[in-house]
Amino acid sequence: MSSFNESPSIIPCAGPLNRRGFMRIGLTGFATLSWPGLLRLRAENALKSAHEKTAIIMVWLPGGLSHLDSYDPKPDIGSEYRGPFKTIGTKVPGTRITEWLPLHAKLADKFTIVRSMNQKAGGHPAGSMQLLSGDPDERDKPKPKLPDWMCVANYLRSKAEKRTNPLPIYLGINPPLEYNGPAYLGDAYSPFAVMDDPNRPNFEVPNIGLADPAESRRLSDRVALRKSLDTLERGFDTEGELGALDQFEAQAMTLLTNPRTRDAFDLSKEDAHTRDRYGRNCWGQQLLLARRLVESGVEILTTSLSGPLCGRVQNWDDHAVNHHVFDGLRFRAKAYDQAVSMLIEDIYERGLDKRVLVVVTGEFGRTPKISFDRSTGAGDASAPAGTLQPGRDHWPRAFSNIWAGGGIQTGGIIGATDKRGEDVIERACGPGDFLATIYHHLGIDSSKITINDFNGRPTALVNDGKPIAELMGRAS
């Protein structure tokens, strides 16, 4: 791969990403749920059991984190590029990151920074689709043409074997649904989505683990009645869509009626110290719940760090019209640093580091050159409307993400950008490499497996990409 020399067109944003207040169920296949005591014993055992499936937690930063102000600082460049943050040393000699990530610095030996990610799409929809599905189209589209890697992995794993766990293979806690989805795989392979704040005192996932046996029976009776009424309709079901709905419904019913599912979502079972370590806020409790769920058998877990903790527009899209970019990073700093660091630390302390891979990323970075514009509104991390303030715009040509767990090689840096952070100059990694690495961890050979699209054409999982060899301790 080569770095991109053309300046990407900056696409105006439509505004904040609205969190959709709904629960979306896409359940396919299940795995055995251990008793709580066995779960803890397994978590504390660093040896990977032969029957345990690999899992992944993707922490999504919608809008894109500024790489210069986080994992790829450039302290020696001019003031038109350099932000106000100092750099700090880390546990890994020679690796420096931004001062607002002190907890990251203390456990830098447990993650690897890829500083040479890049893609070609300058808008949020296309950028998200490029990174998460491999769609090369640089144009923004209203819905994805290709299924994202999460839905693909859900589809392939659910086809591979019958499962009996009442928890879904793929679950999202405020997941990145805005620009991604199952495309031609169908909604049965979407995530079971929890769209709520786990830090609320009365947080509860509705419609799981019904405690009343009579209520469960009534629900089963209603499903049976519905099936008896749609018999004639099945005669016209040439595409087999109703059969897929049957599978969707049966798996949803298992989640609804199995009382053991409640335990996996019950954060009150975590001790107060652990909850405090992650942070008593939405992001901290999201990532604690993510860890709890992968321990309980969920294999694909996605969660977005968005909402009020981001600032006025509730995402990382730090144009000057949205946020004062540096005030925005300060505003998020403690919650982000604490939640991500504690998740990574827990993955290792609980013996999950071979089985569970953690990836933290957004769809792109932010412009190295600072821009100035007038705020469109007052709020957290934004001055009153009309105030001139700094921002950084969309930048797909270079950005950073971090990787931990998954048995990968940690404690280092892969790739490099130029002196201003504008372009990749060493070990470029694109969407295909990102996806191939994730599939490799999940035991999916992305170089050989294809899935038929709407027209029955075999479609490759990854084009022009290979697993990032350095993450696996191999030379490229």
Bin the strand percentage.
5-15%
Mean pLDDT rating: 84
How many helices?
12
Envelope shape: globular
Query: Order of strands in the sheet with the most strands?
Result: 6-5-7-1-8-13-4-14
Short description:
It contains twelve helices and 18 strands. The protein has 476 residues and is an alpha/beta fold.
Architecture overview:
- The chain is built from 12 helices and 18 strands.
- The chain is an alpha/beta fold and 476 residues long.
- It has one domain: Alkaline Phosphatase, subunit A (3-Layer(aba) Sandwich).
- Strands 6-5-7-1-8-13-4-14 form an 8-stranded mixed beta sheet, sandwiched between helices. Strands 2-3 form a two-stranded antiparallel sheet. The protein has a two-stranded antiparallel ribbon with strand order 9-12.
- β17 and β18 form a beta hairpin.
